[in-house]
């Protein structure tokens, strides 16, 4: 998962990008970058780390210009190295800077087909090089050429991709995969300084920067926002949308609205749906506690629906990153210990309903339940806002290999025992769909039901599994020194 931002016609693009990237830092904490155009020259700066560490006042002052694109990186495939940071740029046949959010399933095949010698393991570099190669085939590089090149590119790419390109000769060029798996919006601002446009992974970026959202980039659509401040859009491919359910469950900011569905409101509905599942058992709860932060909304709605007190029983150290986003198991385990500390008075002697948004490896859940028991909880019942995750994601969310996925290898009864809970209640897929309030056939649920919206061949699954295993092993060895 990554985050992208782009602006055109802004008074100070680097400052807007900085603020925009800062507000979607949750989408990636391993790298960030900006590519800026000042009307004459372009500037690229990117590195490993957080936005605030990479860009300081003086570097922002050097990145002068009215248009630019920015990226925050979260590695799913490809190790956490500087060379994988985005944006990337090419200079032939014309200069193009590009960044994306997503993951290309047929990465290896395309590298071979185009005989590419890439500098990184980042799949955006692949997208950019194919785009450039296809653009070279056009007799004339004009607006029409950008769209027809994108059409050929979309024929080649299998996977998820929300792409923002800054093409100095033309403006901002956006396109989104035919299933619209990752979110993508664009908006406009008109004030005394003139008209400017912004695009982003989440609409909150636009709100924060004072842009009015125009609309989502449609699945399979390409949009050219021109330097003259007009824009034109073209539907390149027409397929059924398959938006990632995980954006509403866990990933996106609660104040974001994705595909016209507010994330916070969806989480409230998910909590109510989970309460319906809970009612199917005979257990009683004294209190509902969330695993902060995302699950707060799920837990609040569940507690309201069950008419049980909602309390904060785990104090989160807000300076430790999300455990789910940590790039390896070792840092994840260490982080759990330093991240969440119980408020003993809220736990002691009580029958606790502990609510989390999802259960992936079970490492965190197990530790938290033990923490509750160490505080003398009478009973600990675990409730999960997302149905059992049984299969990896090939579209950009770091859901691990099948071996590591608890629900892929154990029954609910076995998981309950393994994590040490008195009961375990999962959201159902029906409950999830009702909670998100989107038609089931418009959602990607592949990590829950293995119906991948694009073809993912067995050999490709093996390739991804091996890559992920190798990377985790490499990082583990590095950590052990
Ligand atoms: S497989 Fe799961 S995490 Fe990946 S895009 Fe589909 S719903 Fe989202």
Descriptive terms for the model:
481 residues, alpha+beta, Glutamine Phosphoribosylpyrophosphate, subunit 1, domain 1, Rossmann fold, seven-stranded antiparallel beta sheet, six-stranded antiparallel beta sheet, 23 strands, 25% strand, globular, binds iron/sulfur cluster
User: Which regions are unreliable across 5 or more consecutive residues at pLDDT < 50?
Assistant: none
CATH class of the largest domain: Alpha Beta
Strand order of the largest sheet: 3-2-4-1-10-9-11
What would you call the structural class?
A: alpha+beta
How many DSSP helices?
Answer: 18
Outline the secondary-structure elements.
Elements: E1 3-8, H1 13-23, E2 31-37, E3 42-48, H2 51-54, H3 57-62, E4 67-73, E5 88-90, E6 96-104, H4 107-113, H5 123-136, H6 143-156, E7 159-167, E8 171-176, E9 185-191, E10 194-200, H7 203-208, E11 212-216, E12 221-226, E13 231-235, E14 243-244, H8 246-251, E15 257-258, E16 261-262, H9 263-278, E17 287-290, H10 295-306, E18 314-316, H11 329-339, E19 340-342, H12 344-347, E20 351-356, H13 363-374, E21 379-384, H14 406-409, H15 412-419, E22 423-426, H16 429-436, E23 443-444, H17 446-449, H18 458-480
Parallel strand pairs: 14-23, 17-20, 20-21, 21-22
Antiparallel strand pairs: 1-4, 1-10, 2-3, 2-4, 5-6, 6-7, 7-8, 8-12, 9-10, 9-11, 12-13, 15-16, 18-19
Helix pairs in contact: 5-6, 9-10, 9-16, 11-13
Bound molecules: iron/sulfur cluster.
Iron/sulfur cluster (SF4) is lined by residues 181, 244-246, 393, 395, 397, 399, 444-447.
């Amino acid at each position: 998962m990554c985050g992208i931002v782009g602006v055109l016609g802004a008074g100070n693009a680097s400052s807007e990008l900085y603020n925009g990237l800062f507000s979607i830092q949750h989408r990636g904490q391993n790298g960030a970058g900006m590519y800026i155009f000042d009307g004459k020259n372009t500037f690229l700066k990117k590195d490993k780390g957080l936005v605030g560490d990479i860009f300081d006042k003086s570097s922002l002052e050097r990145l002068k210009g009215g248009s630019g694109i920015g990226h925050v990186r979260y590695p799913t495939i490809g190790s956490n190295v500087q060379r994988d940071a985005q944006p990337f740029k090419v200079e032939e046949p014309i200069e193009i800077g590009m960044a994306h959010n997503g993951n290309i399933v047929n990465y290896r095949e395309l590298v071979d087909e185009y005989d590419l010698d890439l500098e990184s393991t980042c799949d955006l570099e692949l997208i950019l090089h194919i785009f450039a190669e296809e653009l070279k085939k056009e007799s004339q590089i004009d607006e029409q050429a950008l769209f027809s090149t994108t059409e050929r590119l979309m024929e080649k790419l299998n996977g998820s991709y929300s792409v923002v390109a800054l093409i100095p000769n033309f403006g901002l060029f956006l396109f989104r995969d035919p299933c619209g798996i990752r979110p993508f919006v664009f908006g406009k601002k008109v004030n005394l300084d003139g008209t400017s446009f912004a695009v982003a992974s989440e609409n909150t970026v636009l709100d924060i920067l004072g842009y009015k959202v125009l609309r989502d980039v449609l699945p399979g659509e390409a949009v050219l926002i021109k330097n003259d401040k007009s824009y034109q859009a073209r539907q390149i491919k027409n397929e059924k949308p398959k938006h990632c359910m995980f954006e509403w469950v866990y990933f996106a900011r609660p104040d974001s609205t994705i595909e016209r569905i507010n994330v916070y409101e969806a989480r409230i509905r998910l909590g109510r749906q989970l309460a319906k599942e809970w009612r199917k058992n005979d257990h009683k709860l004294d209190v509902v506690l969330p695993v902060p932060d995302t699950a707060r909304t799920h837990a609040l709605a569940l507690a309201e629906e069950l008419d049980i007190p909602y309390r904060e029983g785990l104090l989160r150290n807000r300076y430790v990153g999300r455990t789910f986003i940590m790039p390896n198991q070792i840092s994840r385990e260490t982080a759990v210990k330093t991240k969440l500390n119980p408020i003993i008075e809220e736990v002691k002697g009580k029958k606790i309903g502990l609510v989390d948004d999802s259960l992936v490896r079970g490492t965190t859940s197990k530790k938290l339940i033990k923490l509750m028991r160490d505080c003398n909880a009478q009973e600990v019942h675990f409730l999960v806002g997302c149905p059992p995750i049984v299969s990896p994601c090939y579209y950009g969310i770091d859901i691990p290999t099948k071996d590591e996925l608890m629900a892929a290898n154990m029954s609910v009864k076995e998981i309950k025992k393994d994590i040490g809970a008195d009961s375990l209640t999962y959201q159902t897929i029906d409950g999830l769909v009702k909670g998100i309030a989107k038609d089931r056939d418009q959602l990607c649920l592949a990590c829950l039901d293995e119906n991948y919206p694009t073809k993912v061949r067995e050999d490709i699954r093996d390739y991804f599994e091996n890559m992920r295993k190798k990377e985790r092993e490499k990082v583990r060895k590095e950590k052990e020194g």
